[in-house]
Amino acid sequence: MSRFGQGRVTGVAALAALCVAACAGSGGGSTASSAGSAARALPVFQRTDMLWLERISFGIDSASVAELHRLGRQRFLAQQLSANDAALPEPIATELAVLEVAHADPARWLAEVGAEYKAINAMPEGAEREEARKKLNERGNKLAYEAVRSELLRAIYSRAQLREEMVWFWLNHFSVHQQKANLRWLTADYADRAIRPHALGRFRDLVLATLEHPAMLQYLDNSQNAVGHLNENYARELMELHTLGVNGGYSQQDVQQLARILTGSGVNAGNPPRLKPEWQKLYRREGAFEFNPARHDFGSKVLLGHSIEGRGFAEVEEAVTLIVRQPACARFISRQLATYFVADNPPKALIERMAQTFARTDGDIAAVLHEMFLAPELDDALGGKFKDPMRFVISALRFAYDGRTISNTRPLVNWLNGLGELPFGHSTPDGYPLTEASWASSGQMSRRFEIARAIGSGNAGLFDGEDGAAAAPTGFPQLSNRLYFEAEEPFLAQRTRAALAHASSQQEWNTFLLASPDFNYE
Amino acid sequence: MKRRDALKLGCTSLLGVGLAARLHAAPASGPRFVLVFLRGGYDALNLLVPYSSSFYYESRPNLAIARPDTASGTGALALNADWALAPAVRDTVGALYLARQAAFVPFAGTDDLSRSHFETQDSIELGQPTVGARDYRSGFLGRLSETLLGGAVSAPPISFTDALPLAFEGAGTVPNLSLKSVGKPPFDERQAQILSDMYAEHHLESVVRDGLDLRQEVAQKMADEMSASGRSAINTKGFELEAERMARLMRDKYRLAFIDVGGWDTHVGEGSAQGTLAGNLASLGRGLQTFSQTLGTEWNNTVVVVLSEFGRTFRENGNRGTDHGHGSVYWVMGGAIRGGSVAGEQRALTRANLLQDRDLPVLNDYRAILGGLFQRLWGLSASQGERIFPQAPARDLDLL
Questions:
Q1: Do B319 and A231 touch (CB under 8 A)?
Q2: Which of A98, A476, A499, B64 has the fewest Cβ atoms surrounding its Cβ within 10 A?
Q3: Residue of chain A with shortest Cα separation from B7
Q4: Of A202-211, A339-348, B121-130, B224-233, which range is least confident?
Q5: What span, in angstroms and rounded, lies between the C-alpha atoms of A202 and A333?
Q6: Chain B residues with CB inside 8 Å of A222's CB?
């Protein structure tokens, strides 16, 4: 205890405070200005600005704080809404490029896996067969892990923070579970090709992209849905969870009608089927996605009171357009967004304005986000939103390591697993809950504190090799740094200050800060 | 020095009002209740097989479980002239049934016809009437827990889950801890005190305190048990391991518990006497048997109910699986129940008797059944029953 007396922590704090003063004096804090006097003239960073930045990103770091200083909210938001892949810093771009999943080819992979399983099943029982099975399984697990690793690295390091938040939001909204069927081979591609390109785009495109992805078609069993063998699973969730919401004004009859419309949309990694000539022109194939007219119900349907003429995949496009233009869809999507970004019980007036924007712009996601992030209701709600596990873990790493590249994401996977929010890990299609009540139970809070300690004490193995090779000891992060004094310290609650003052080491100080209510709410 | 003394005092007062004190106050004799929620809608008709129904065999050419063969001693276990138990649980739950420690209630479920997992799970956990406005902050175990708080015996609640289930909403602070893996407590008393103090007067205050306390207690408990049993105790895995740990924690302290088990949404390749569903049922059966054995004599003072959000379609689908249906089969178990029966209202399983020509109808409302069990178990009044399950008069199936 005496080795790390209060004096030391105070010393650390004083040192960092000194640095802030010195940096500000030399104008180093802002890229906008080189003159010391101009830097001092910058307005003091407001608590609401810091919290707003927490919402529009996975958590503050020095770069985003400086950027917000430079641009102000409006321009910062505009920049975020138009950000693209170039926003990935170089070491991370390289990290991602070397992953096998970066070059995903689901059609080829599914064909390979299918062939390998066939070969394995044809082998005589015994050690050799088990070995082959194990090898295939390990490859699947590796790809599954790489898919998670890609998402986590992008969440921590991408400068397109809002886009990555939206990728996470949509991955959760159109949730698929990696452990089902052969989804392990598909999830990275699902994130990169179905979700990310449309994350800030048009909602209809997003729905269709998920609908045409083998991951979704397998996860919700539509690959099994065929004329005469109706499977309603996807049809129901498409309306209940993806577009209209549970009281969105559709009936069991509509579910059946949509299921009929969806017949024939499935997965094929092999050769195209032999078809009658009149069906050949209706056949569609894109990667492993297939629309097979031989499996389609060509009868006419009535969906949500509209008749839809049986004619092939065009019915699906017509049905999706019809569904996403329902007022219930605009309201449901707006409410989900506001629940995630604004408050557990978002103000009705805000939802209404967002829904109007959604309807007016025919589902332009960026326009709806623009409305939401500049809404006075968001300002009123700042500080009151509990970080879900993903936001807690990612924000802690952004804050603690501030741009420094971690090499090993396995500890993150373990933490998110323990807190129950691993990407692609939700078994039911409803996605993870968006509100505090589901994440702040007694068991979850004590686990969260343990993770705060693992990060704060620096012995989590974040800089070890991915192969498990231990790195040279890197010590613990210095959380009482310039970023802390600029963006956290001025706004801390009295009780948090008291806890920090009782810390007997820098590691403990880090732990208490990351465990504090101030850090866990945004 | 001064600060350390203050912390010590602080710790004492922390334990004084915290979870530990409430638990130690629990009398050893109160009844226990465990709700096991099978999430995903398990296919009840391949657990409790309606073997007298030829329509069952017509409807499930690939999935149906063969009629019991009384001579063989394997296969489905005939429970009466109409029902047989799946072979997967013959040696576990079947043995409990023969000892009159297990009963089944077919045609059980809700009046929620959404056939949505999430909607129906929520519906069941809330336990409120399905028509009219709902209070999402009030689950039926929460209301039961609150009701028992003022009673003659205390019933400390716990949820063996990573997250607190909706069923326990509104009960104040209910501790939760998944027993899938249990480690050492991460903080010493001084650190735990400082962490708790940060949340003083915060709405998470008691949650934070209970979380820190519970970790210490469970770790202590597991360490004691391990050394007492010569370190050979834990060779089980999966749900069986969870159930064993659950029994050890419930033997002394907790009286009202929730646990959930997933993996029941068998749209594709469900299997029959063997396969996916059979494997899941076998694991569940072994776990429940282990639970009963680990509780020892306290099993006589315990009731377990196993339920799921809905049953599945009576007919198999085109993929050797089943889709979301309606009526289910609930299980009631306990050392001192009047088991060995298939209870509640029933009707012959013919096509005409199906709901919407596809599902088992619900003839035994889950709120009425559970209300009846709770009233018997704790001697509750009708008005207390009404508080737990509003507008659902209790129905006594005479199982307790």
A1: yes
A2: A98
A3: A502
A4: B224-233
A5: 12
A6: none
- Other Cβ atoms within 10 Å of B252 Cβ, number: 12
Q: Where are the beta strands (DSSP E) in A271-342?
A: 284-286, 289-291, 301-303, 306-308
Q: A464-516: per-residue pLDDT in tens?
A: 887 777 777 778 898 888 889 888 998 999 999 999 999 999 999 999 999 99
**Can you say whether the dihedral through the CA atoms of B219, B222, B224, B230 is positive or negative?**
negative
Contact A221 B268 (CB under 8 A): yes
DSSP code of B346?
Answer: -
Of B197, B202, B268, the CB nearest to A224: B268
For residues A488, A489, A492, A495, the Cα torsion angle rounded to the nearest 10 degrees is 130
How many beta-carbon contacts under 8 Å exist across A and B?
137
Task: Give the N- to C-terminal CA distance of chain B in Å, as an integer.
Answer: 58
* Eight-state DSSP code of residue A125: S
**Tokens representing B301?**
């003072």
* B-chain residues near A430 (CB < 8 A): 117-118
For A105-153, how does the pLDDT look when each residue is reduced to its tens digit (9 = 90+)? 889 999 999 999 899 989 887 789 889 989 999 999 999 999 999 999 9
- Under the banding of pLDDT at 50, 70 and 90, the label for residue B22 is very low
B159 to chain A: which residues are within 8 Å by CB?
441
- Answer yes or no: are the C-beta atoms of A230 and A256 closer than 8 Å: yes
Alpha carbon distance A120, A325 (integer Å): 48
Q: Of B323, B35, B135, which is closest to residue A237 (Cα–Cα)?
A: B323
Q: Is B175 on the interface with A (CB under 8 A)?
A: yes
Name B104's bridge partners. B331, B342
ipTM of the complex: 0.88
Backbone angles phi, psi at B32, to 5 degrees: -115, 145
Residue A11 CA: distances (Å) to CA of A15, A514, B157, B191: 6, 20, 46, 21
| pLDDT classification of B226: cutoffs 50, 70, 90 | low
Query: Chain B, 264-293: which have a CB under 8 Å from a chain A CB?
Result: 265, 267-268
Q: B325 vs B146, B354, B364, CA distance in Å?
A: 33, 11, 16
Distance CA(B333)–CA(B95), nearest Å, equals 12
Decide if A449 and B212 are in contact by the 8 Å CB cutoff: yes
- For residue A251, the tally of other CB atoms under 10 A from its CB is 9
The minimum CA-CA distance between A450 and chain B, rounded to whole Å, is 6
What three-state secondary structure class fits A287? Answer: coil
Side chain identity, residue A182: N
Quick check: B187 and A449 CB within 8 A?
yes
For helices A106-122 and A127-157, the axis angle rounded to 10 degrees is: 160
Question: Whose CA is closest to B256, among B294, B211, B222, B302?
Answer: B302
**pLDDT tens profile B97-107:** 999 999 999 99
Over residues B152-177, the pLDDT tens digits come to 788 999 999 877 888 998 887 788 88
Contact (Cβ atoms closer than 8 angstroms) between residue B299 and residue B103: no
Partner-chain contact B318 A502, CB within 8 Å:
no
- Are A229 and B211 a contacting pair at CB < 8 A? no
Instruction: Establish if B198 touches chain A: CB-CB under 8 angstroms.
Output: yes
Distance from CA of B400 to the nearest CA of A (A): 33
Instruction: Choose the weakest-confidence range: A15-24, A445-454, B60-69.
Output: A15-24
Residue of A nearest to B195 (CA): A512
- Angle at which helix A47-56 crosses helix A365-373, to 10 degrees, equals 160
From the list A221, A428, A511, which residue is nearest B267 (CB)? A221
Structure tokens at B387: 């508080």
Restricting to B residues 338-397, those with a Cβ less than 8 Å away from any Cβ of A are none
